[in-house]
What does this fold into?
Amino acid sequence: MSSLPSRQRLPRVRGLSPRICCPSAAMAWLLLVGGAFGQDDAARFSSWAKVEAASETKTYREAMVAGGAFDPAARGFLEQIALPQLQLESNRSTIERIRKRLREFLLGGIANEKSAEEATKTVASFMETLAAQDNVDLVVRVNAMLLIGELQSPDRKPWPPAAVVLGKAVADTALPKAVRIAACVGLARHVEAARGLVEEQQRIASGALPAIVSVLKEPTSPESVLEIDWMTSRCLAMLPLLGPLQPTTAAEVVRILDDSNRAINVRVRAASALGAAAGPESQVNAAGVLQSSGGLAVLSLERDAATADKRMLDRQYGGGAGQPVTGTIGALSPDEFGAAGLNPDPAGQQPGAQLIPREVCRRAAWRLGVLADAILSEDSKRGIALLAGDIPPAASTLAQGLRRAAGALDERPMEPILRRALADLKAAAAVVAKP
It folds into this structure.
């Protein structure tokens, strides 16, 4: 951009009542800010570095640190000089740093509590409008929404009014997915800050829960599955921090757990949310959810093994070199690794010796560990199994088996360990599935 945006094109903040504690100071401010919009002066504010070094910025900072009122001149400085910097092409390569400086440099250290609140409102309103504008570059809209989520109160906690803005953006399907994801990041920060604070949880829940449920209900499509899955996973992680699940919310989580078309990781997080937040008031079918969780553990391992089997066949019949050890590898014990040509030390794993990569094994370990805690935590104080009244022995056995398999895979992320876990867990999951 060759010049600053005009006044007509910039977001405006309405409904605020400015206080002017010193008329002469206010007049000086208005003269300074008013002179910034002439064509001849555009170059003075053509980058954030120039704005940060400008005399107008020094005057604003000195007034705010000294406890001055957030008057029309201060608001004008933010709206017309400082905040538009996020949009400038000259700042694009450092936009993340600019976003951070807008918050820290312009809002940090304001001595007057009322001025701090008014300044934060101004930034929030400007960025909310900016994030909603279709004619603004997406990277600018995303950073505007991220900045709203990063706004803080004087106590360094998330600025409470931002939660409402973020919740609305998360649920707004007209916004680009990237902007909604940025809002989801900020909303999660507010939810996390309310951990253990009942009144705060209730306040956050009033705006966050409707947005979260709307995301859980949102259908996926081939074009948006990655974005929707990411938002769904983040929303599922927020639920346990907002109190016990209500029946309608719990029903949506169960639906995701049982949806074979959803990604395995999303379904695992759904089980985790149920284990952490479902209670008697959630009206969850404990037996059905236990069965689904056990079946999901088996399914996740089966898919990993099937992918490896297909890769093996492709190598065998495609003439590929470096074929792995085959045959009875699934029945090998750790003591038999050496005889099969496998090194039990993951760091010393022979190249091409296993078709399930270490990263896949570690992912499997994470899934099994999360499902174990979802079914029954290690201290038996939390989990889906508790919803059945007396803990079903089969559920306890399955949770223990999942936890052991997760530990073994995490310690030695190797194909034989994964295949052994699959064989063992099939039997335990089958017992849980019986009426």
